[in-house]
Structures are given as structure tokens and as C-alpha cells.
Amino acid sequence: MATVPLDVGLIFVREYYTFLNKKPQRIHAFYSKNSVLVRGDEGDVAKTYRGQEVREIKSMEELNFEDCKVLVTQVDSQMSANDGILIQVLGEMCNLDNPPQKFSQTFFLAPQHKGYYVLNDIFRFLKEEV
């Protein structure tokens, strides 16, 4: 049982960022109507969005993620409430020809009939220097 959160976390992270790179228009499939999403830069106030159809999820293809490359440097996963899995991801994201930016992303995967869905997603680009 100890490897379940780690295995699920690693599989999820690989799939999620592959979709972000190759099929950003389908990234909403990881979410549900109950999902809560936060996006922003470190230190900025970020707005919270709810639901699978929110603009921030449905329109990721408009953000030119077609050539988005992600280097994941750390994935930590653990079992959480109601058989969910908490996942913390650290890495660098490079979109188009822009310089890479460090990021932190936290997911809470809630169980569903087949597998999991993203119930909570907190994403922050990190500052180079604090």
C-alpha cells in the first residue's frame, strides 16, 4: 500500500504534463465540476476558479501551450482524506522560446469510479530570487 500514492502520483504527473504539451485543449478532462483551481505568480494574489468548464482550464490552448516543455525535478505524493492523493510537483516550464520558469504545483486527486480526478490544483510560478 505504501507505493500506491507514489505510483499514482508519478503516473498522473507524466500524463498531465504530456497532455499540457501535446493536447492542451484536452487538459480539462483531468478535472470535474467540483474542481477548484488557483493560478498565479509567487507573491501575487490569485483568484480561485471552480468547475471543469472554467475559462482557465478550458482555454489553456489559448495560452500557447502547444510547445510547452516541462522538466519535473521533484514529485512527492501521499495518501490523504477520503482515499485521495496529495501530489506536490516542483519543476521548470518553458513555453515556446521563452526562458524556463520554476514552478510549484499541488494537486489533490479525489477518487472516482475509475481512477481519480483533480479536485484541487494550486499552481505558482516561482520568483528566481526572494
TrEMBL record:
Residues 8-125 form the NTF2 domain. Signal peptide: none annotated. The keyword Cell division does not apply. GO terms for biological process: protein deubiquitination; ribophagy. Transmembrane segments: none annotated. The keyword RNA-binding applies. InterPro entries: NTF2-like_dom_sf, NTF2_dom, Nuclear_transport_factor_2_euk, Ras_GTPase_bind_prot. It comes from the Eukaryota. Pfam families: NTF2 (PF02136). One of its GO terms (cellular component) is ribonucleoprotein complex. GO terms for molecular function: mRNA binding. Keywords: RNA-binding. This is NTF2 domain-containing protein.
